[in-house]
Amino acid sequence: MGIAEDLQEKWEGILQWSDDNNLPLRGISDSLEEKGIPAMPFFIFLILLLVGGILYFTVFKGAGGGITIFEPAKVDILLVLSDATGQPVPDAQLTIASTNGAQVNLQATTNFDGEAGFKGLKVGTTFEVSASDSGGNALTLDENSFAVLASTKVVELRLSSPVVTQTVTVSVEVKGPTDGETVHVAIIGTDGFPIGGTQTGLNTRFPGLAPNSDYTVRANAEGFVANTLPISVKDRDLPVSITLKTKEKADLGIVKVLVVDAIDLCYVLHADHGMNASTFSARVTVATQSDVYSAITSAVGTLKGPLHGGANEAVMRMLDKIGSMDKIEAWLKNALEKKEKIMGFGHRIYKNGDPRAKILRELSKEVCGKVGKSHLFDMSVHLNEVMEGEKGLHPNVDFYSASLYHCLGIPTDLFTPVFAVSRISGWLAHVMEQKAANKLIRPESLYVGKTDRKWTAVEKRG
Ligand SMILES: CC(C)(COP(=O)(O)OP(=O)(O)OC[C@H]1O[C@@H](n2cnc3c(N)ncnc32)[C@H](O)[C@@H]1OP(=O)(O)O)[C@@H](O)C(=O)NCCC(=O)NCCS
Fold this sequence. Notes:
alpha+beta, Immunoglobulin-like, 5-stranded antiparallel β-sheet, 4-stranded antiparallel β-sheet, flat, binds coenzyme A
């Protein structure tokens, strides 16, 4: 049977199926035939139109309503380069260019394993490869082209000869605990100097080393003893690993521990106590039913004054101003003669000496000595002695904390903010206590000025 007869038979079948299912296909077919339109091709045309419409709206038309352009598939591939002896060739420049001009001149450098990644290569494209060493000299490949298929992931390339090593690369992996410190690595030559500078990180690479030479790998980090490893490099790149040693009792470690302990102790010694001025102002503020932020702001503002917590900054500036030990006595006597207040001395409550000052004095001695600034402590002691002799006044909490904070590396402008940090929990405790049983704090004051004065109009005042 021919194709036309076959189609005709199928068409008759469709009309019969339409009759059986009460569909008006035969009626439509007859009226089309009456109008001279052949029914079978017309229905085939309708079906094609329907399929075409579905394809257009589901495939070509994107979700956002735009037309989706069909891109050819792309793949990421890894080129692996080894030499004629099978050794990976690191630091080689690989350039690939498509033979049909679709993608041109993509470049990558091979890593230690001779691998170089190329992203988004069009499937169905053939690429030509050219390779050169790190010095720019061309390397000859056994095969210099490859075709990309959807399944291509790795392409292995081989040089037609062994690589003649001009330089070698040493890759260093540092192992062991680092405590989060930055690790510094260097390759030391036989002359004792680092070659190619110091690098940081747990995995570092040192290219450009001379083959057939001896070197020393050195790794260290703050708080660790530097570890060294002698290496003998032949004519190949060399991976080495070195383990950091934990620092035992090095000076740096002791200072670090001392600093942490000293700051802890300072916070305790400067903690809030008694109804001092800043605590009082925090309570006055919150007693008006103002909020805790305003109460702490009041306290900070009060602490800032040099007769209160601002005194430690003033002590430091005074030590700077005096400058040296030999000027202390004359400077102090002159200031006292002028009735100046000497910062860091005297206290409203501790008339026989502030117990906190005794501990801070010892701490200041230790820390200033450790950081090589004993002269600041010595000046403070001399000032203390002269002041006790001249005025019978003892140092308060702010006096030795000045030299101590300075030697702990705290900038002078931050002395009082650091003081505030140790006060804040006490201030808050007072604020909570005040709020729990609040009553407005409203002291009485006694007017001691003139009384019975006459009012004079402004224009008549002199
Ligand atoms: C803390 C301080 C405000 C206490 O003041 P106070 O209780 O009013 O002081 P006193 O009543 O004990 O003062 C007694 C005398 O010593 C004098 N005096 C007190 N501290 C002095 C100081 N640091 N330098 C010079 N003279 C001082 C006063 O002027 C007063 O002298 P006078 O009798 O001749 O007038 C006061 O000692 C001072 O200003 N110290 C310097 C600032 C300071 O270090 N503040 C931090 C405090 S923790």
